Amino acid sequence: MTQRDWQKDMDDVQGYLKNKHLVHHNEQTLRGEPVAEVLQYWLQEAKELQEIVSGRGREILRLRSLLGGLNDELTATEDRADAAEAREQQLKEAVQLAVNDLGLWDDKITAANVVLGQLQRVLSTLYPDTPAPKEGE
After folding, report:
1. What is the pLDDT along the chain (137 residues), one digit of tens a residue?
2. What's the rounded Cα separation, in Å, for the pair 120 and 12?
3. For the chain, is the Cβ count within 10 Å smaller at the N or the C terminus?
4. Rounded to an integer, what distance in angstroms lies between the CA atom of residue 119 and that of residue 97?
5. For residues 90-106, b (16+ Cβ closer than 10 Å) or e, as one string?
6. Which residues contact 32 (CB under 8 A, 6 or more apart)?
7. Residues 6 or more apart in contact with residue 52 via CB below 8 angstroms
8. Residue 57 near residue 34 (C-beta atoms within 8 A)
9. Strands (E), the chain
10. Are the C-beta atoms of 13 and 40 separated by less than 8 Å?
11. Measured between alpha carbons, how far is 9 from 39 in angstroms, rounded to an integer?
12. Rounded to 5 degrees, what are φ and ψ at 29?
């Protein structure tokens, strides 16, 4: 199919529609509608598509890229939330074990030190990017 200038075709169709009353012949129809009107409709669609591709299409691409970035950020946030929930569950389990362990020791000070050590190990996993406090802090 040869490349056509839709703007020239649109001008021809509009000229025909404007002056069709001057021509005395049977008008061609397509499914009951005048062919010139059907052609005008599709030429208008072509114009809008060309505008989208040339100008507004860039905006659509920019917005798609922005949405892709937001989707990536949302996925990363969900992953961090899942990891935080897993650490919270570990902490709950460790606290429960520590509480249970307190009753098993005769020497309460030794028991408390053991429990504190367990809790410190678990707490150090809550914020893995933050250095653990040093003794005396």
Report:
1. 567 777 787 888 888 778 777 766 677 766 777 778 888 888 888 888 887 777 777 787 788 889 989 999 999 999 989 988 888 888 788 777 777 766 666 677 777 777 777 777 777 766 666 666 676 65
2. 83
3. N
4. 10
5. eeeebeeebeeeeeeee
6. none
7. 60
8. no
9. 29-30, 33-34
10. yes
11. 9
12. -125, 160
**Tokens 């606290």 map to which residue?**
95
The amino acid at 31: R
Distance CA 91, CA 123 (A): 7
Using the structure block, give the residue that is written with the tokens 């100008």.
Answer: 55
The alpha-carbon radius of gyration of the chain (Å, integer) is 37
Q: CA angle, corner 136, sides to 134 and 137, nearest 5?
A: 65
Under a CB-based contact definition with an 8 Å cutoff, are residues 28 and 35 in contact? yes
- The DSSP element (H or E) to which 101 belongs, if any, is helix 57-102
